[in-house]
Write a structure and sequence with these properties.
Blueprint (H helix, E strand, L loop, with lengths): L4 H12 L5 H8 L3 E6 L2 E6 L2 H10 L1 H12 L4 E6 L1 H4 L44 H12 L8 E4 L6 H15 L5 E5 H14 L2 H9 L4 E5 L8 H16 L3 E6 L11 H7 L3 E4 L5 H14 L8 H10 L4 H18 L5 H7 L1 H6 L16 H12 L3 H5 L5 H18 L3 H7 L5 H17 L1 H15 L2
Parallel strand pairs: 2-3, 4-7, 4-8, 5-6, 6-7
Antiparallel strand pairs: 1-2
Length: 464
């Protein structure tokens, strides 16, 4: 093949434009460099380990297929980290090196809440329940203050919202050590408003939050509910930062429309960027989280894989509880002077296992999930249409809603990938599926009748 790696990559990228959404190309593939062309294998260098792993798992197969079509022979595309970064210590990819902390005119101010050094992209385990949020988070790092601004992450307690938010902060600090990324909890923001009002120093507060930072990360913004004075200040702070292109990242335990007592103008602004949820991890995701935890704490030889699998199968409430189970199991084994086995785990975590016996993962008697055909059949019958209609290219109003519901349930119950869902519904693209999932989620949040109807379909499918 008589062409350079760069020319080959340009041709592949041009062909990929017809198969991948533009935001995906901009965020993941355009920052990549072609570094080697070895016979029929193109090696691409991503800016960091997270991007290399993401591209390898999500895009390498498609790019290889495109290459094979272009060049008429078997072709392979692979990703690695850029050379200068591959020589750095593993945990340094997203955290500023020790010397960077002393860099002048950079870093968070003293009044900001310190970042947790463990909350980086390197330690964030991606699964079906959080892949959209993780992709958007990386998009924020690639282009802060642009498309995903604000970036609003929501989900139940203990699922990794704060971890992902702080991973964004670490990555931005790594890329721009002179920048000022400020992380605070909503309660701290509220208390500071009160204190500065009482002290007559609101100009200092406004200068601090509106002029002296580049990135604002606010955790648990649902605590702003019914705090009218604080909401007023937050509204103007939000506007000042947004208008000057400063990145805003927010987390909450619910979507903006479900936060009671939140002013409509704040809801509107929170929804103006990217709103992404983090859901409950499935069995495979929970197992991966536990293995990552064991790896971080060097427990691979202490806790066998079968014990990790046992915990993942029986404890399903949150990532935080999974981590708590590891701590409890280690303490129990130490007190009993016994090796860690499944029997010991069953004894140590009896309360957790009992609470988690209902639903998914309840032992060898688990039912297999329904098929996508069954999902389409149930939804079609309940909405008075045909399964063929859901799979068709037709865009009539009568078919649009049930099709979106079926996509939502395919994601929720079957855990299907976005591309798989699109293919099952007439070859629709990735962005259409995301829009459908988001629309059903929003409709369920504001329409109880609709939510009950979707819930009845879910119940029927779950009982099959």
């Amino acid at each position: 093949m008589q062409q350079s790696a760069q020319d080959t990559w340009k041709r592949l990228l041009d062909q990929a434009r017809g198969r991948l959404p533009e935001p995906t190309l901009r965020t993941w593939l355009e920052p990549v460099d072609a570094v080697a062309l070895e016979e029929d294998r193109l090696v691409l260098a991503a800016p960091d380990q997270f991007a290399a792993e993401w591209n390898e798992s999500k895009h390498a197969k498609l790019l290889s297929e495109i290459g094979s079509e272009l060049f008429g022979t078997r072709f392979e595309v692979s990703f690695r980290v850029q050379e200068e970064r591959s020589r750095r210590p593993q945990m340094d990819f997203f955290v500023a090196p020790p010397g960077a902390a002393a860099a002048p005119a950079g870093g968070p101010p003293a009044w900001a809440t310190p970042l947790n050094e463990r909350y980086t992209f390197r330690t964030f385990v991606i699964g079906k329940s959080n892949e959209l949020a993780a992709a958007a988070a990386y998009g924020v790092v690639e282009a802060p203050g642009k498309a995903y601004n604000p970036f609003f992450i929501y989900g139940a307690t203990g699922l990794g919202k704060t971890h992902l938010m702080q991973a964004v902060a670490h990555a931005l600090i790594e890329r721009s050590p002179e920048g000022r990324a400020v992380y605070v909890g909503a309660e701290q923001f509220i208390n500071e408003v009160i204190e500065h009002i009482h002290a007559g120093k609101m100009p200092d507060f406004r200068r601090r939050y509106r002029q002296e930072l580049d990135v604002l990360l606010v955790d648990d913004v649902h605590f702003l509910e019914r705090k009218e004075m604080t909401q007023e200040e937050f509204f103007h702070t939000f506007n000042a930062l947004h208008q000057t292109g400063k990145q805003i990242v927010l987390t909450s335990d619910r979507p903006p429309t479900e936060i009671p007592g939140l002013e409509a103008r704040l809801v509107s602004r929170f929804e103006s960027g990217m709103v992404a949820d983090i859901g409950q991890p499935d069995l495979e995701h929970r197992t991966a989280i536990l293995r990552k935890k064991a790896e971080e704490d060097h427990l691979e030889q202490t806790i066998p894989d079968d014990v990790l699998g046992f915990i993942a199968e029986h404890v399903r409430s949150s990532v935080r509880e999974l981590e708590g189970c590891i701590i409890k199991l280690l303490l129990f084994a130490s007190l009993k002077h016994r090796e860690i086995t499944i029997d010991l785990a069953r004894e140590a975590l009896a309360d957790k296992i009992k609470a988690g016996t209902d639903g998914e993962g309840g032992g060898n008697g688990r039912r297999a999930p329904p098929s996508i055909d069954r999902v389409q059949e149930v939804v079609a019958r309940r909405w008075g249409v045909t399964p063929e209609g859901l799979r068709s290219k037709a865009r009539t109003k009568r078919l649009t809603v049930p099709r979106q519901v079926a996509m939502y349930l395919a994601r929720d119950i079957l855990g299907m990938q976005l591309v798989e869902i699109g293919q099952a519904f007439g070859g629709r693209d990735h962005s259409t599926v995301i829009h459908s999932l988001d629309k059903v989620g929003r409709q369920m949040a504001r329409d109880h009748t609709f939510r009950d109807r979707v819930g009845q379909a879910r119940t029927e499918l779950s009982s099959l």
